[in-house]
Design brief:
The mean pLDDT is 93. Strands 1, 2, 3, 4, 5, 6, 7, 8, 9 and 10 form a ten-stranded mixed sheet that branches. Strands 11-12-13-14 form a four-stranded antiparallel sheet. The protein has two domains: 3-304, Ureohydrolase domain (Arginase, Chain A); 312-390, no CATH class. The protein is an alpha/beta fold. It has helices at residues 26-29, 67-75, 99-115, 129-135, 167-173, 194-202, 210-215, 220-225, 255-267, 288-304, 352-357, 368-375, 381-390; strands at 7-8, 31-32, 47-52, 87-93, 119-123, 144-149, 179-187, 206-209, 229-233, 273-277, 319-326, 329-338, 344-347, 363-366.
Length: 391
């Protein structure tokens, strides 16, 4: 079955004539699935945007299944960057007879796009769709990392059914399991009980409080650089900046921080899919949240077209290698610094069979601060977390 059978076309969105702008708007640049043109050819496409018209398993935020139209009205009006863009808007995945049918369709579409080396960008729907995205990686024989921007962990209660507040438990318990690492970006402590924090630490997952990242948003960059899948819950943004979410709260990321996070994600050579969930037009004010999400998607696209392909595996001429000796660890820690971008990685020394099994995970994105920590004869927390997962 061709993936076009899962989609309904994009509704017509009129672009206002703005004489002052000589550049093209995204609505003019995107290849679009319309009644007149049909489903776009995917041969040269690099990013595929689509909506999912299903919010049946959303907790306290029904209406977010209608997000895509509101977001497109602002996204299409934004001007394209100074690069040749190969982006398609595939339309909206039609709501299935059951929510399981919708999950099946999302998994099938994401899997097909990944096979074509096209990055799917989903405008949700609820964050439970992250589970459907995760399943799309099952046949690719890769162990993956997930980064979730969220003010809580979405573990749910024990044995709870799949919904937007329990999807992470279903990912962790999924058989076969192909999750190597989960990173939470921006949790707020008063929404997370201590047992959940202890569980995350026992699983050696990475969790970062909102307050820590407010002080230095650049800490997010190596976190998303290490991810294959980005899941962004709009309730992670403060209510004053993104009111279009029934679960929005007074605290959260600022709008410009959200844009910075997703630009980091777009620039990551590793990220192969992204989902933006829980935007609810019924709760929005003057299109504020839809407009912000449109700009976030713009930043993701812009980041993608500024990818540098600077991973240490690309060749010795592209990076500087440092071997730092640390007391209590005889082998030392190897760091790599990219010459073109000044980005950093550190290598987890391990046996050949572990390197083969986890070939995408024993070189870990890090920061210059991790290198400085090692110079001070301390093992960086980021290195220790990855080491314990590998060993």
């Amino acid at each position: 079955m061709h993936i076009s059978s899962y989609f309904k076309p994009v509704q017509d969105i009129m672009l206002p004539q703005v004489a002052a702008h000589k550049g093209k708007r995204l609505g003019e640049v995107f290849s679009k699935h319309t009644d007149q043109v049909g489903f776009p050819e995917l041969g040269e496409i690099q990013i595929a945007i689509f909506g999912v018209d299903d919010d049946r398993n959303v907790v306290d935020n029904h209406g977010c299944g209608m997000a895509s139209l509101s977001v497109r009205e602002y996204l299409y009006k934004l001007l394209s960057g100074n690069y040749e863009m190969q982006v398609a808007d595939l339309g909206d995945i039609m709501r299935g007879d059951s929510v399981e049918d919708t999950y099946f369709a999302v998994t099938a579409v994401v899997e097909a796009l990944l096979e074509l080396e096209i990055i799917p960008v989903i405008i949700g729907g609820g964050q439970d769709l992250t589970y459907a995205m995760y399943r799309a990686y099952q046949n690719r024989k890769n162990i993956i990392n997930i980064a979730a921007v969220d003010n809580m962990f979405d573990l749910g209660e024990s044995e709870s059914r799949l919904n937007s507040r329990s999807y992470l438990s279903h990912i962790i318990l999924h058989k076969p399991n192909f999750l190597f690492n989960y990173t939470n970006i921006g949790y707020q402590t008063y929404f997370v009980d201590q047992g959940a924090i202890d569980l995350m630490r026992n699983l050696f997952f990475d969790i970062y409080r909102l307050g820590v990242l407010h002080n230095d948003i650049a800490q997010v960059e190596p976190l998303v650089r290490n991810a294959d899948l980005l899941s962004f819950d709009m309730s992670a943004i403060r209510q004053s900046d993104a009111p279009g979410n029934a679960n929005a709260t007074p605290n959260g990321f600022f709008g410009e921080e959200a844009c910075q996070i997703v630009r980091y994600a777009g620039m990551s050579d590793k990220i192969t899919s992204a989902g933006f969930f829980e935007m609810n037009p019924a709760m929005d004010r003057n299109g504020q949240t839809a407009h912000l999400l449109a700009q976030m998607i713009w930043y993701f696209i812009d980041g993608f077209y500024h990818r540098q392909n600077d991973h240490p595996s690309t060749g010795a001429d592209n990076y500087i290698r440092y071997n730092v000796q640390v007391t209590d660890f005889n082998d030392g820690i190897v760091f790599y610094k990219s010459k073109p971008t000044d980005r950093w990685w550190m290598e987890i020394k391990c046996s050949d069979n572990i390197r083969e099994k986890y070939r995408r995970h024993y070189v870990v994105p890090c920061t210059a601060a991790d290198y400085q920590t090692a110079l001070e004869d301390e093992i960086p927390d980021r290195w220790w977390q990855a080491y314990q997962k590998l060993m």
